[in-house]
């Protein structure tokens, strides 16, 4: 059995977008990096309710290791674990969270003291389903990344992930990925293989807690091999020109928000900038605002057809 379906979501509303102080974890501790706002937590619950209805349902989950992304998928994990059959018997499954730095935030080409995800053991102290056994694929360079390097990072991470899942002993057919706005765009392009000449085009829609669905075209053999990630030399993956990673994928659902009470919110696209000036605060660095253009209202008619025939 090989991977057939990928669901892609972006984290919900951040606390600093609504000027909320960081909300404490149920343990009373303050999260290690920017958490969701109260509204973002509501979005995560609505996403979880929707994911119980989709077909196929995810049977494995990968997430950026930033707190707000894990927080976004945690309600879905709880919902799957609490599922019951027609007789009311609990029949759910416990799904671990695979924290993958290669799906992490993009801070541009010049970064110094920008936030880093907390260590895995710290994250597991907040989220018991966070896997300590998972070996990450790629950690972004602390020196920063250009827009092109972000796309190459996404492509390599996905190629290795798909290869891992194709050979996984449990044979997962469907994966849920949670990430950030810029990485969402790069992941979508790497899957479909379409890299636009104009990097600022709104070819995909990373709404907060929205859901995109990608279906595999062909089961291509991946040549991507995991590396030790010690010299920051990212291996190249051949994905452009419509090829896509892992045989290529069609985007059959782009940024669905019909299940969210607030609908399409806080969209994003690249501005073309690769650096921004900011003062780092504990929970306030917002690379998306500094490096991209926030779009409040969607215009799906501007999107492109990402199928093989498009």
Give the structure's gist in a few sentences.
This protein has 310 residues and is an alpha/beta fold. The chain has six helices and eight strands, in the order βαβαβααβαβββαβ.
**Mean pLDDT across every amino acid position:** 88
Query: Which word captures the global form?
Result: globular
List the secondary-structure elements in sequence, H or E: EHEHEHHEHEEEHE
Structural class: alpha/beta
Number of helices: 6
Rg value: 18 Å
Number of domains: 1
> Main β-sheet, in a few words?
6 strands, mixed
Please bin the fraction of helical residues: 10-25%
Write down the CATH class: Alpha Beta
List low-confidence stretches: 298-310
Q: What portion of residues belong to β-strands?
A: 5-15%
At the fourth CATH level, what is the homologous superfamily? Answer: Phosphoglycerate mutase-like
- N-to-C CA distance: 28 Å
Per the CATH scheme, the topology name is Rossmann fold
What strand order characterises the main sheet? 3-2-4-1-5-6
- If classified by CATH, what would the architecture be? 3-Layer(aba) Sandwich
DSSP strand count: 8
Describe the structure.
This protein has 310 residues and is of the alpha/beta class. The protein contains 6 helices and 8 strands, in the order βαβαβααβαβββαβ. It has helices spanning 38-51, 67-81, 120-126, 147-166, 181-192, 287-291; strands spanning 5-10, 60-63, 97-99, 174-179, 211-216, 249-256, 267-270, 292-295. The protein has a 6-stranded mixed sheet with strand order 3-2-4-1-5-6, with helices on both faces. A two-stranded antiparallel ribbon has the order 7-8. β2, α2 and β3 (97-99) form a beta-alpha-beta unit. α1 (38-51) packs across α2 (67-81). It starts with a strand and ends in a 15-residue tail after the last strand.
């Amino acid at each position: 059995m090989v991977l057939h379906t990928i669901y892609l979501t972006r984290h919900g509303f951040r606390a600093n977008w609504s000027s909320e102080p960081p909300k404490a974890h149920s343990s009373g501790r303050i999260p290690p990096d920017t958490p969701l706002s109260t509204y973002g937590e509501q979005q995560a619950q609505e996403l979880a309710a929707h994911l119980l209805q989709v077909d196929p349902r995810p049977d494995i989950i990968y997430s950026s290791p930033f707190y707000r992304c894990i927080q976004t998928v945690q309600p879905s994990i709880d919902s799957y674990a609490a599922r019951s059959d027609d007789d009311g018997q609990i029949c759910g499954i416990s799904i671990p969270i695979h924290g993958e730095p290669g799906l992490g935030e993009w801070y541009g080409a010049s970064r110094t003291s920008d936030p880093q995800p907390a260590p895995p053991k710290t994250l597991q102290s907040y989220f018991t389903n966070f896997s300590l056994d998972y070996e990450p694929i790629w950690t972004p360079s602390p020196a920063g990344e250009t827009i092109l390097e972000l796309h190459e990072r996404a492509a390599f991470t996905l190629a290795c992930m798909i290869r891992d899942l194709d050979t996984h002993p449990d044979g997962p057919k469907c994966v849920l990925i949670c990430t950030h706005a810029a990485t969402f765009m790069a992941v979508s392009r790497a899957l479909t293989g379409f890299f636009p000449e104009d990097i600022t085009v709104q070819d995909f829609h990373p709404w907060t807690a929205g859901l995109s669905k990608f279906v595999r075209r062909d089961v291509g053999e991946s040549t991507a091999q995991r590396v030790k990630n010690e010299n920051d030399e990212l291996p190249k993956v051949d994905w452009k020109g419509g090829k896509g990673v892992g045989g290529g994928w069609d985007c059959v659902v782009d940024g669905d928000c019909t299940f969210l009470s607030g609908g399409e919110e806080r969209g994003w696209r690249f501005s073309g900038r690769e650096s921004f000036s900011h003062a780092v605060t504990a929970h306030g660095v917002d690379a998306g605002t500094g490096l991209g253009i926030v779009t409040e209202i969607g215009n799906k008619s501007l999107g492109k057809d990402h199928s093989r025939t498009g």
